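Consider the following assembly input.
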Amino acid sequence: MTRKFNFSAGPAAIPLEVLEKAQAELLDYSDAGMSVMEMSHRGSHFIDIAERAEADFRELLQVPDDYAVLFVQGGATQQFAAVPLNLAADGDVADYVTTGSWGKKAVKEGKIFCDAETVASSEADRFSHIPELTPATFRTGAKYVHITSNETIGGIEFQGVPETGGIPVVSDMSSSILSRRIDVTDYGVIYAGAQKNIGPSGLTIVIVRRDLLGNARSGTPSMLNWNVQAEAGSMSNTPPTFGWYVAGLTFAWLKELGGVDAMEAINARKAALLYDLIDGSDFYANPVQPAFRSRMNVPFTLADPELDKVFLAESAAAGLAALKGHRSVGGMRASIYNAVSEQAVAALAEFMREFERTHA
Ligand SMILES: *Cc1c(COP(=O)(O)O)cnc(C)c1O
C-alpha cells in the first residue's frame, strides 16, 4: 500500500490513525456483530457513538451549554438556505461579508428568502484582503451578519470576529473548523461541512446559540429547521451515521494530539513553511495580503503558467496529490487541513524548491 500526500481541497485527507481504527472496527463494531453502517441509529451502540462524538467536539471547541450542536446532512450549501429560514422572515434584512466564492454563493441563496445583501466585499481587489468592518458597516435591523471564516478557493481567512454591535454573527467554518482556537460565544451560529477538517462528506455540523432557535419562518421544511433537529437530538430522521462515527474518531484523534491549541501550533508551522518559501522566491507567488492568508488553503501561481502542467505531472509522480488550483484562480492550491501532516507539507516544500531549481 502506498498512500499519497493528499492536498485535496475536499473531500480531503483523513488522519491515517482514524482510517485504521475505522478499518479495524468495520466488520464488527465493539462486539455488535455488525458494522456501524448496518446498525440502528437508535440502538445503544450508536447512541453511545453519537453522544461521545458530541461531548468530545464540545470539549475541543469549548462549546457552552447554551449552544446546541447538530449533526445533519445536506452540506454547508444546505445551510446557506437554513440560515435565512431559521433567522429571518420574508423581507427581513440580513447582511453578508463577501470575501470569496463561498460567501458569494451564501448571499445568493440568502436572497431567495430575505433582504440579503453584501454590505462589505473585497471582490474589487480580487479578494486579496478582508474588508475593514465596524458596527457602522451593517444595516439597522439586520437579523444576522454572515461571514465565511476561511475562503477555501481564494485562501483568505478571518483572523478574528467582526464587531457587529450585537447582531449575531453566522460563520461558515467548513474549511477552518477545529484548525485554531475560537471563542464560540463570539458567534450566533457556526456551521461546517465535514469533508475538510472533520471526516467524510455527508455530515454537516451546526452550532447554534439556543436563544436563536425556535424562530424559523412558517414554511420551513422540518429537515432545515434547527429547532426540530435540536429537539430530536439530530435524529428527527436517520442521521449520517457513518460520518458521525468517523467524525467522532477524528475528535478522539485530535484530543489525543493535544486538542485545538496543539493543532493550531502545528497548522501555523505548516502554513509558515509554504508562505515563507513562496515569499522568498520570484518563481512562486500568492496573491493574498499576508495578514489575511489562510492557514488551511495555500493557493500559489508559478511565474510561467506554461509550467503548470509540468508542475502537476511531476508533483503527482512524486506522490503529492491534488495540487491543481481551483479553475477560478488557476495555478496551484495546497490544502493543508488538520489531517495533512507536517511531513507531507515538508515533502511539498522540498518538491517546490527542487522544481524551482530545475525549471526557473
Ligand atoms: C466546501 C465548502 C462549502 C460547500 O460545502 P458542501 O458540503 O459541498 O455544501 C461551503 N463553504 C465553504 C467555506 C467550503 O469550504
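The pocket of pyridoxal-5'-phosphate is lined by residues 10, 75-77, 102, 148, 152, 172, 174-175, 193, 196 (CB under 6 Å). Ask yourself how this observation constrains the way the partners meet.
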